[in-house]
From TrEMBL:
Organism, as annotated: Methylobacterium dankookense
Organism placement in taxonomy: Bacteria, Pseudomonadati, Pseudomonadota, Alphaproteobacteria, Hyphomicrobiales
Cellular component, GO, one term: cytosol
The entry's keywords: DNA-binding, Transcription, Transcription regulation
Domain HTH crp-type: 149-222
Protein name in the entry: CRP-like cAMP-activated global transcriptional regulator
GO MF entries: DNA binding; DNA-binding transcription factor activity
Keyword Isomerase: no
Keyword Transcription regulation listed: yes
Domain Cyclic nucleotide-binding: 15-109
Length: 229
């Protein structure tokens, strides 16, 4: 059983940043609360952008299938993140598939509804534009990683990004836990699974990371940041 978040905790995250109380209440009242079981799909790649989601609790994985039918993990998203924002704001088809990586609660707005709220409340529009700008900057950074960095630097960059997105402090260090896998790391880095596993194994022997069956723990983020450049 995954209880819904308390109302007091819902008015947080990307769209609610620095909103005054009245505007935040209007935005929250317009939302529908939804629950997705682990493995459930929020939307598929190519679907019309009919809804915008903001994660309250849980985890969402974004994946994309290329023309050759190969699936790639793009990113993971946690509490406070907007899912599908670029497609909804630009009114283009969803470029990826969003799947709940664990039981996930979200706030949901219809695309017409959220665009109307943005037009009537400039502060909401500012938050939306800032979020889109952050996603664009992330894509530029990832493109730069693919073209400018060596293989180990790319793997290190992906691990640090995952720590920022879905990491948590644990007894050993900064944990990147299931459902994130070594296969996800290889896909997000653009290297083979064998290469990613070899690099991670080498780092474990050097004390940079610890590898478990269902998790990766970053033991020395400073050294890893040096590898990432």
């Amino acid at each position: 059983m995954n209880p819904a978040p308390r109302r007091s905790s819902l008015a947080r995250g990307a769209l609610f940043t620095e909103l005054d109380g009245r505007t935040a209440e209007i935005l929250l009242n317009a939302a529908t609360q939804r629950h997705f079981a682990s493995g459930a799909t929020l939307f598929h790649q190519g679907d019309a952008p009919s809804q915008l989601f903001q994660i309250s609790t849980g985890l969402v994985r974004l994946t994309r299938v290329n023309p050759e039918g190969e699936q790639t993990t793009l990113r993971f998203m946690g509490a406070g993140d907007l899912v599908g924002c670029v497609a909804v704001f630009r009114q283009v088809a969803f470029p990826a598939t969003a799947t709940a990586g664990k039981p996930t609660n979200v706030l949901c707005w219809g695309s017409v509804q959220i665009l109307d709220l943005m037009s009537r409340h400039p502060a909401i529009s500012v938050n939306a534009l800032n979020t889109v700008g952050d996603r664009a900057r992330e894509m530029v950074d990832r493109l730069a990683e693919m073209t400018d960095k060596g293989t180990e630097a790319r793997v290190a960059s992906v691990l640090l990004r995952l720590v920022g997105q879905v990491g948590r402090h644990g007894p050993k260090g900064l944990e990147i836990t299931t459902p994130v896998t070594r296969k996800d790391v290889s896909e997000m880095t653009g290297v083979s699974y064998f290469t990613a596993s070899r690099i991670l194994g080498g780092w474990q022997r050097q004390g940079l990371v610890w590898l478990g069956r269902a998790r990766i723990v970053v033991l020395d983020p400073e050294r890893l940041a040096q590898v990432a450049g």
